[in-house]
Design a protein that fits this description.
Structural class: alpha+beta
Helix content: 10-25%
Radius of gyration: 24 Å
Strand content: 35-45%
Shape: globular
Low-confidence stretches: none
Largest sheet: 6 strands, mixed
Number of strands: 19
């Protein structure tokens, strides 16, 4: 089964409120045809509201939404069923009284090829043979695949997914999200994912739009977002960090772990934001190991250095233990820093 031609999505200056409570503030987003965008942010930041506005489930207070060449919200209004947009909800929203095949067929217009289209959608999601099963008899992973098959069966130009993996256990979530990302890339479907999970956003998104309190604060590739966050809040939200107070002058910051290179634009008091992989440990010193978290592929060591607590990512064979005395070194070239507020 092939998708219809992918369509871009352009959101401009979108505002939305629920009663007297503003939710979105001047949100703008440009999604290219075939691109996958992850909307990442904490609960209540407006991610799902933005998704519902794109789908047409709600009307924005102001601003515009264009899908492909069609203005669907703004000076005109296009209802959801005419937007050629598929949506997968957080709870999957399957019809409990309909079989798998009838759930998938629900959004397909009547045609002589309807049964063939349903079969193709089920085959694509590895659900062949389950056509007559009821949703309640399926596993969580199977139900999630049915929801995806139903959204993809009408061959939408844009697919919207609201926390689609949150109801799955950890191992299944990792497996399914990789499958889905690969499938959507193969089909060339424009997709917009909502998630509060940084790891998930980095996996499913060609780019990630970080939202906070109704604003998009930064849109970038996962690499740029991780290494060049726009502010301290974003840096802390998209990955593990340690913070040190320092004083910057002429491209160098004097910190408790030594002199570190920083942006020459910074002068005076700064907060150094250090990723665990930018730090290394040496045996002996004034710092103390507080905790060791072993993950198999690597180890995260929590270290107390004076009044500061630092997180250091080490290899899987690290043998530090609680109470060991160590020295923390910065092993990257330039440290991320922000002027103190």
């Amino acid at each position: 089964m092939k998708s219809s031609a992918a369509r871009g999505v352009i959101v401009e200056d979108l505002e939305h409120s629920y009663g007297d409570e503003p939710v979105l503030h001047g949100v703008s987003l440009d999604v290219s045809p075939g691109e996958s965008i992850a909307l990442l942010g904490p609960s209540g930041c407006g991610k799902t509201t933005l998704l519902r506005l794109i789908a047409g489930l709600e009307r924005p207070s102001s601003g515009s939404i264009t899908i492909g060449e069609d203005l669907v919200a703004g000076e005109t209004w296009v209802p959801p069923d005419r937007r050629r947009v598929g949506m997968v909800f957080q709870d999957w929203a399957l019809f409990p009284h309909l079989s798998v095949a009838k759930n998938v067929a629900y959004g397909i217009s009547k045609s002589t090829s309807k049964d063939t289209e349903v079969s193709a959608a089920l085959e694509m999601m590895n659900l062949a043979g389950l056509e007559d099963r009821m949703p309640a008899t399926l596993s969580g992973g199977q139900q999630q695949r049915v929801a995806l098959a139903r959204a993809l069966a009408p061959r939408p130009g844009v697919l919207l997914l609201d926390e689609p993996f949150s109801n799955l256990d950890t191992s299944l979530r990792i497996e399914v999200r990789t499958e889905v990302r690969e499938l959507l890339a193969d089909l060339g479907i424009t997709s917009i994912f909502v998630t509060h999970d940084q790891d998930e956003a980095f996996i499913v998104g060609d780019r990630v739009a970080v939202m906070r309190e109704g604003h998009i604060v930064q849109t970038a590739t996962p690499y740029d977002l991780y290494h060049n966050p726009v502010d301290r809040w974003t840096a802390e939200f998209v990955g593990t960090v340690s913070s040190l107070s320092a004083t910057a002058q002429s491209g160098t910051a004097q910190s408790p772990i030594g002199s570190l290179a920083v942006s020459p634009k910074l002068q005076g008091p700064v907060d150094l934001i250090l990723r665990p992989e930018q730090l290394a440990l040496e045996a002996g010193g004034d710092a103390e190991v507080l905790l060791v978290e072993y993950y198999g592929h690597d180890t995260l060591v929590f270290v107390e250095s004076g009044d500061d607590q630092l997180r250091v990512r080490c290899g899987p064979t690290t043998n530090y233990s609680r109470g060991d005395r160590v020295t923390v070194r910065f092993v990257d070239t330039v440290a991320l820093a922000f002027a103190k507020e």
